[in-house]
Amino acid sequence: MAHRMAASPVASRRRGVAGLTRLLLTTSMLGCAVLVPAGAGAQQTAPATAAETRAFAIPAQPLAAAIDAFIGASGWQISYSSALVAGKTSAAVSGSMTAEEALRRLVSGSGISVRISAPGSAALFAGAGAAAGETVLDPLMVEAGRRGGRNDPATATTGYVARNGSLATKTDTPVIEVPQSLSIVTRQEMDDRGVTDLNDAIAYAPGIRAIDYPGGQGMPLMYLRGFRAQSQRDFYRDGLRNGYNPYDSFVEPYGLESVAVLRGPSSVLYGDAAPGGLVSMTTKRPTEDPFGEIRLDYGSFDRKQVAIDLGGPLDEDRHILYRLTTLKRDADTQIDHSRDDSVYIAPAVTLDSREGTRLTLLAQYQNWTQGGSEQSLPLDNSVYSNGIKIPSDFYMGIPGLTDWDVESSSVGYAFEQEIDDTWTFRNNLRYTHAELDYVSAFNWEWPIAVVDGHYVNVGVQKRPRTSDTLVADANVNGVVETGPLAHDLTFGVNYGYSRIRETRTNSTNDAHIDILNPVYDFDPVYGAPWTDSKSIIRQIGIYAQDQIRIDNWVLTLNGRQDWAEGSEYEYAGAADTVDKASSHAFTGRVGAAYLFENGFAPYIAYSTSFEPLTGRDFDKRPFEPTTGEQYEAGVKYQPRGMNLLVTASVFQLTQQNVLTTDQQHSGYSVQEGEVRSRGLELEAKGDLGDGWSLVASYAYTDSEVTKDNPNASDISKVGTRTQAVPYHTAGLWVNHDFQTAALAGLRIGAGLRYVGSSVTAMDTGTGTQAEIDGYTLFDASASYDLSEVHPGLAGLSLGVSGTNLTDEEYYTPGFYSNSVLAGKRRAIKGNLTYRW
């Protein structure tokens, strides 16, 4: 975070090591969070008062230089991160006006908002900020445990650090107070790393392993703390469940403001979920200051993309704000005949009364096309050299026939009403309709294999699907004091409804494709649909939370009760059938954190979760949900005066009621299994000063089956590792914004990602698991602000980014015990961006 005060023009440009040393020494002696730059002893302009007008004459120029000019003219102190203003150009400011008005005009159009910290002091933030006249504290001055409303600086994102932990509490709680492990990937980090999909976004976060699946369909396949995320119950968008089926949805990273990974059981606030945690995405929102961006991309596999992002007020008083994010992409992938085409349109409007009522309307339209082949590779023809090796670009489908094409539309809102100075009501809602045109291709052999030395037999399946989803959440939050205790209370209810209609029809013949010389001449013959189904799910949950503060302690207590009802209708066959089942579950969380004055916050927590199961046992009773319980301890550290967050945690997470063989009744299951995961997670991210930014992570995860009944072959899974979950993962990304005159405007970044070896699913006939080697991938990026070349190019920047730059060949465990998926090969893309 850069902290600047009025100084002589020469002094204001001193950024050397000596200056930094003097900053730190001065801060230590004063014992406060305000950093005084080198040269502060020079004669300074007296700060302008709030109502005082002064003459300003600041031409359009690189934003950092314009802020220096503003400081010299106004005497104000401005705090911001160097990464925030990098590559941005100021608006011209001329005439007599107040300092606040001049500052707001200066940053207008840059996507940066102004928040008045105190008289003569302001902080700059990315995205929508506080309204004119509202006063908030500088984020580096926020005392541990302080709380506020939606304008609390803890909600701000500065560089790589997001300070709001609302995903874990549904309140404006600083991350450091949350008794749970949480990683947040900011827009700045995604831009610096050149993120192109959700896997890229979370690639450097600990405790989560995404399976790379080039040409794959639908939501990504991920494991959190050793447990698989499935059926979208672990993916959230704007605080609400993203959907109920992974095939109906896809994530467009350009439309996101941030991605958060909440590790460990989260049912206490969100209902049914896998015990490992959840991934939550926040879409771009309207901004108070006008801005615009046009971006052109071109890259590997003929990737062509144009994106436009616009925002700002629609009226002079800034009561009506808007945002429009659009994207069009035409692209191939590393898999032959497998597309990655997308159309994305996301308008948003905010109506803010400035008197406690705020409504944001959100809409989204998406249309994607990708290849429809499953791409499961036999171990013998990929990892091992037991026959011909299948190339990583070989398409195991039928071009022009086997495609995954989805059209999805959603509309919703986020509403907030301040009831009084203490209590606030919030309500989110979203409706989504999706239509899926999907013809899937799959290896006809079982176990999957290459036949006749160099042929793949491929069958196809028609899988059209339509779905409708309604999700909603409402809660009331307020503070009540009982003696020395301050209770931050939240009471809420949420609701989910899903209707999915689908048919599946297999081909009765298969394609015989030569790996050495593929000829895709195949005319499928279809039989009757083997399934014609409708699935309806209704869920409702009520929850309560009490965050208790006394001195430096923060105690978090949660409880939630859920009810779910599912109906499965089957119309294929001689007679229509229906299967209805209902379940309920109670989950809870108890956590405590102690906030030391030096920025350390150790915590300990216990939490539970539940995840529904489909099917019935031998006695026709519906299966009960699986349950999860976790013990977690950790420490978070936010050093005063630095935009840095360091976290460390250890955990033991156990899932019970897992299905296993019913030894009394062949072909049936009972809920006597158990899976346990233990681990350590470390993460550090933030700004190190002098233009350096860092993301570093490490995770050790030991996930294995601890209870299981032997199957008919007398083989038990006890002691086997969880599929695709490595013991060790690590990541390191370093970014530098050059601040010397010779290299001004240049930003470069580089990173390494390590994923240790993992195993395939167990072969139930032999009890064996194949080990898949680990790998290390190298990523890098660079961007340059062209205004440094010529002032007439203000707003223009060039960038380039690449992943797996050494073109490492690697595999990840596939869907079956004898299969893998090819990893993502080297990809490089460049961009030309114009911002105003």
Question: What would the principal axes of the Cα set say about the shape?
Answer: globular
**What is the number of E strands?**
45
Radius of gyration: 28 Å
**pLDDT < 50 runs, ≥5 residues:** 1-44, 128-156
CATH class label of the largest domain: Mainly Beta
Helix count from the secondary structure assignment: 7
> Approximately what portion of the residues adopt beta-strand conformation?
over 45%
Notable features of this structure?
mainly beta; globular; 836 residues; five-stranded mixed sheet; 50% strand; 45 strands; Phage tail protein beta-alpha-beta fold; Ferric Hydroxamate Uptake Protein, Chain A, domain 1; single chain; 24-stranded antiparallel sheet; Maltoporin, Chain A; disordered N terminus
Structure overview:
The protein has a 24-stranded antiparallel β-sheet that branches. Strands 9-15-16-13-14 form a 5-stranded mixed β-sheet. The protein has 3 domains: 2-152, Phage tail protein beta-alpha-beta fold, CATH 3.55.50; 177-281, TonB-dependent receptor, plug domain (Ferric Hydroxamate Uptake Protein, Chain A, domain 1, Beta Complex); 282-454 and 461-796 and 804-835, Maltoporin, Chain A (Beta Barrel). Mean pLDDT is 88; it is low at 1-44 and 128-156. The protein is 6% helix and 50% strand. It is mainly beta and 836 residues long.
